Amino acid sequence: MKRFPEYYSFWHITGHYGLRVTAFLVLLFLMLPILVIMPLSFNSQPFFTFTEGMLSLDPDAYSMRWYQEIIDDPNWLLAIRNSFIVGTIAAIIATVLGTLAAVGLSSQWMPYKRLITALLLSPMIVPLIIIAAGMFFFYTQFNLVGTFTGLIIAHAALGVPFVIITVTATLSGFDRSLFVAGLSLGASPVKVFWDVVIPLIRPGVISGGLFAFVTSFDEVVLVLFLAGPEQRTIPRQMFSGLREQINPTILAVATLLIVLSAALLFTLEALRRRSARLSAGG
Amino acid sequence: MNSISHTLDPDDARNAAREVRKRRLQAFLFVVPLLVFIMFAFVAPITTMLYRSVHNPTVANLVPETLAALEEWSGEGMPDDTVLIQFATDMKRMANERTSGQLADEINRALPGMSSVVKSTARTLRRVEDSDLSANGATLLLAANDRWSDPATWRAVRDAGPTYSSSYYLTAVDMERTTDGGIAPRDTQIYKQLYTKTLKMALIITILTILLGYPLAFFMAHASSGLANFLMVFVLLPFWTSLLVRTTAWIALLQTNGVVNSTLIALGITDQPIEMLYTQFATIIAMTHILLPFMVLPLYAVMRGIDNSFMRAAISMGSRPLGAWYKIYLPMSLPGLSAGALLVFIISVGYYITPALVGGVDGQMISNIIAFHMQQSNNWELAAALGSLLLILILVLYWLFDKFVGTDNIKLG
User: Fold this and answer.
1) How far, in Å, CA of B326 to CA of B229, rounded?
2) Exposed, middle or buried, B258 (CB in 10 Å: 0-12/13-18/19+)?
């Protein structure tokens, strides 16, 4: 039993344990849905619930059949390939353009800074359904609907705000005199940018790129409006699966995606620590 | 700059000004590529949507001559036979071009039931000879369907004509134009109710995330940093997990024969499965789960910076814990609370995917109806008008967010 200071009343002690229990229950609420579907994806039956066999840990009640179905289904394979292609190219576009813009925006000389920042961050604020409708109207005129180009442009626009935010954050800890020092030693601005600035802001650039990739990788609303059957991505395939015939294959895909997000989370955390260490050391 | 420049001689001042211009241009050049890209990829599409909400040239392109002929008409009684003959000719042409369906859709919006009338009339007139049509077009048209002898039908044709019209906004706020040109509420109020429902659901979700998120953030902020970092994983993992994965999880949990119902039956709480999926309840619980991290993260960030000795001091001086929290802690945690609440509210107002998948009829929000008009009813102009209203709502909310919370301290993860 923990010892409390003497001025603590009964209510304070109750509150202390009450808070612990509440916090635990809320964490359970956050994690349980994700934890529950992972074992369900190994169900040998096409059910969305734990069978008696699963509860008694009967090996026959578990199987990899839903994972096998992903591999056997050309639609899923196409979706997985498309997700990676679209996500990678969109992230590269967003990262290159976003990093350049963040460098410009963090300069004290930048004109109309507030207005331009607001404009560049707006894809994060405007509801996706509005973006989707607008893009559908506008991209139709350029025959971009139902093409990879159209989808990649759309996803890159969604990823831009994340790159701007993360790179601006790392640049705020960046010592501008390093840039001046590089110039004074005779290096060209491009060389200074490439050899001095980029290595120092690299953690921010990489995490911005990862954010942009995940944004595209998870995105479904724009895909629903802009993509044709050839451009179906994992979320698009999941969405139609959930709409039409719900099948535990989706649980297997979901489990794979959870593992992927966990890996990503740890990568970002490592980058954050590295960035914190760098700015503390610098 | 100005206070310095008058101590410099004119040449220096000019050089300084040139230098400033050069620096500003250099900074701006970095932003240009992205600016051009965003203008094309994002700004132009949003502008197109806004434009679309007042611009619909379909009818004007389909039957320009009929509309021109209708301009003479007063709106009372039947239009002249010349109008009817012109329209009959247009109908035959549209039937051959297979565009009569477009006209049918447009007129049907103002006058339900007209879709089949237009299509069947087009089919009938298609078989008539041109010479016959120019002589007896009016009679043939009236014979094809008796709704053509109703002046209301012709008002609908005329009113669908203008290329620019505010009628989609009127529909979006449940108003309509009356025969005498005034504006009156529609008989069935759909969209106002939908906006109210959306705001109400967003509010419920926001309150739920506060009720769940505040104690959790409080606990984490006062735990040792090792424990806090460990627990943070349990907040960040759901945050990083795909939205569709979390929605899938709720479908698996809430299904008729899903985990929750099986558990309830096994525990003897209920005999029969309870209908939970495809209800408003499902939308609210799934969205609360999805948006909870957006509440916890800003709250935690603010609470982490609050010195705990204030609370201890208040309690040591005889304040009750709840009283100390209300008077001391709550005001200090308010920046995090308002940031989280506004963020959750703004995101939930525009939500589409989760309501579409788990909401059923009851749990649909404004975004779902916009998608419906885009994809199923093909009433793009109404979708654009509803979308523009939603955009205005979001911008107002965001302006409030910026005013009270500030957008400079948006952090990720």
Assistant:
1) 27
2) buried
| Domain presence at residue B26 | no
Q: Residue A168 and residue A201: Cα distance in Å, rounded?
A: 9
Interface of A with B in 53-92 (CB under 8 A): none
Instruction: Please say whether the beta carbons of A274 and A203 come within 8 A.
Output: yes
Q: Are B185 and B160 in contact (CB under 8 A)?
A: no
Cross-chain residue pair B216–A23, CB shorter than 8 Å: yes
- What is the pLDDT at residue A280? 63
Poorest-pLDDT segment among A9-13, A195-199, B353-357, B358-362: A9-13
Q: What is the mean pLDDT of chain A?
A: 90
pLDDT at res. B1: 47
Number of domains within chain B: 2
d(CA B345, CA B209): 10
What was the pLDDT predicted at A279?
Answer: 66
Q: Is A259 on the interface with B (CB under 8 A)?
A: no
Considering only alpha carbons, which residue of chain B is nearest residue A29?
B289
Picking from B378, B178, B204, B376, the residue whose alpha carbon sits closest to that of residue B291 is B204
What CATH number should be reported for the domain holding residue A137? 1.10.3720.10
In a domain, A102, yes or no: yes
Residue B194 is predicted with a pLDDT of 93
Q: What is the residue type of A265?
A: L
Distance CA A207, CA A95 (A): 10
pTM of the complete model beyond 0.80? yes
Task: Give me the mean pLDDT over the B77-104 stretch.
Answer: 88
Count how many residues are written for chain A.
282
Q: What is the complex's ipTM, to 2 decimals?
A: 0.91
- The count of domains in chain A is 1
Q: Is residue A153 part of a domain?
A: yes
From the list A215, A227, A258, the residue with the least C-alpha distance to A151 is A227
Same domain, B223 and B139: no
